[in-house]
Specification:
This protein has 12 helices and no strands. By secondary structure, the protein is an all-alpha fold. It folds into 2 domains: 2-157, no CATH class; 164-280.
Amino acid sequence: MALETIIYGLGLLLVGGAVAGLAFFGVAELRVRAMRRSRLAGAVVGGVSGPAIEKAGGLLPEQLVSTVRRLGQQSAVRDPAKVSLLRSRLMQAGFYSREAPVIFLGVKATLIAAATVGVLLTLPMMIGKGGNLLGLVLAVSLSLAALYGPDQVLKSRKTKREQEYADGFPDLLDLLVASVEAGLSLDAAVTRVTEELERRYPNLTVHLRFLVLELRAGRARKDAWAAFADRLGIEDARALATMLRQAEEMGTSLGETLNVFSQDMRQKRMLRAEEKALGLSAKLTVPLILFIFPTLLVALMLPAGARMVKVLG
């Protein structure tokens, strides 16, 4: 029985390694394609140079990626609204390729197929003499990883990038205010701010470059800023897009509007910091009760307990 468990465990490890490899190559392909598109647009994403991109692209197994792409095309969503929603989620997670939804669906289909094979391998462990809890746990783990793993990866990447966007947005707004008050137009100010924030906030800079390209292509300013806010997915960006649209429609001064919005953002940032500081005492209650209070209780009661044992003994 122990030998069979070892064999099935090795088989599950091989399946898990294959699944992880497929996911890695799929993500790498999306990143390389995004870098190539940015390079053709005159930008370098994430500070990676052109020769490095070509070298990374040459190392990818094209046959494996094409297989994943075919699986994604077979399981592609036919509803345009759902495709648009999935593309928006992928862009917020950092996948900008046009084929990103197809590859994502292909990776999900590959994971489900690999999980099915893994569950079949665990069946002899579960239906053996007396059953085996380990086999059931492995089967459930593989199924959950295949069903919810890709979505959790997207959610994690989106949360991480939204944190970077929230951290860099006040700096973006301050630089915009300074540039506009110095005499630059809003479009020229965005271009200048993009160059300044490239090293500090590379992911935010990618969206700013998209915004610059859309403005240069002749897209309406309010539509370009609205798309920029949707790609970022944070409330501050949506508020900025709404403010710029209202300022353009009403003909108010752009510099004064940005200055007022910047002051409002500073106040909101201070209120968020105060809210976190006030909530710290409530968050410390559980660690105090579970860890610090029992330690103090033992330290205070231990001498008295030792004396009672000595007296009674």
